[in-house]
Amino acid sequence: MDALLLHGGEVYDPEAAGAGGHGALRRADVLLVDGRVAAVGEALSLPEGTRAVDCAGLLVTPGLVDLHAHVFVGQDLGVDPDVVGPPSGTTTFVDTGSAGAHLFGAFRRGTIDRAGTRVRAFLNISSIGATSILLAGELENLAYANEDVCLAGAREHADRVIGIKVRASGNVVGRSGAEPMHRARRVADTLGLPLMVHLGPAPPGSDEIMATLRKGDVLTHCYTGFEDNRLSVGGRVRESVLEARERGVVFDVAHGMSAFDAEVATEMLAAGFRPDTISSDVHAYSLDAVGDLPTVMSKFLALGMELEEVLACATLKPALHAGMAADGVGTLRVGAPADVAAFELVAGPVAYADTRGGTFEGSRRLRTALTVRAGVIVHEALKEGRQ
């Protein structure tokens, strides 16, 4: 029996009753046995030989779930989930369109099935995926947005594909306009899967995109600063955006290298429009801008969101929208996968930058101290003498 006790931490349970419905914090121990959560509480009965890790002063959470990333190792865009995941407390990545149907087999064999980190994916409507993004958009040639090919690829890899992705912005679609988005919509509907739409510079415009989205679909890059497609204008959230949220559309951060404008985020947060999920959009070109998922989460602490709300947006909520919460991903419920992270909540002034040249300040930040994946410690940055 392989048993690990995370002792004395401030445990965040996203499924517990808490203020605002965002989960709750309490001092507790977390017992992990044979790759599963065995118990959460105090004075737990421990199996013989249990290894204990002192987590006093640390925030203990479910392993983070990043709803928007690019982890196709060996592809121009991809980063290695087993390199960027453990130091960030991220135990699950959702790849968002790195691969289309003609490359998904390579993505699966080379990354998904070999990674220690859990990986699921939105399949790109373009058969070539988001390859060589600095050279050309994958949807400039409409022939690649073949619905039959996408359907076949999604069905072949149905155990790993959780939705369909389209990068519906002018710098990706070129003269194809809104047609790739409409094709992606039809494929998602045929499969009964959610559609994720990337928001960037028009065309298509944000109102047209909102009209395309339905309950359970994801609008990613919701705080983009591209002037023609900002979701808030003059401090007011667009009516089409409010109507989409009312229908159950999910609004995702996806910071990335150019998609996070602190001014837009501040305006929308002030108007009561919170993100449903906080994701990084980490990839080979965005690493310097993003840092990691805890850094993006810390930016939202600086912008005034509560700690429990921020944690929910990077654990249970993305797991729910990715269809993995029923299996315990993003939770600490008994029987869930033993994916856990521990963070220091470091006090002190910190300067942040958005992706549009703006800066702002915060007073605390999350720093990863420990990451456990399937019951195995994969990252440790604990102070000497804790164990």
Automatic annotation (TrEMBL):
A Pfam short name: Amidohydro_1
Residue ranges of domain Amidohydrolase-related in the record: 88-352
Protein name: Amidohydrolase/deacetylase family metallohydrolase
Membrane-spanning residues: none
SUPFAM superfamilies hit by this protein: Composite domain of metallo-dependent hydrolases, Metallo-dependent hydrolases
Matches recorded under PANTHER family: DIHYDROOROTASE-RELATED (PTHR42717), IMIDAZOLONEPROPIONASE AND RELATED AMIDOHYDROLASES (PTHR42717:SF1)
Organism of derivation: Conexibacter stalactiti
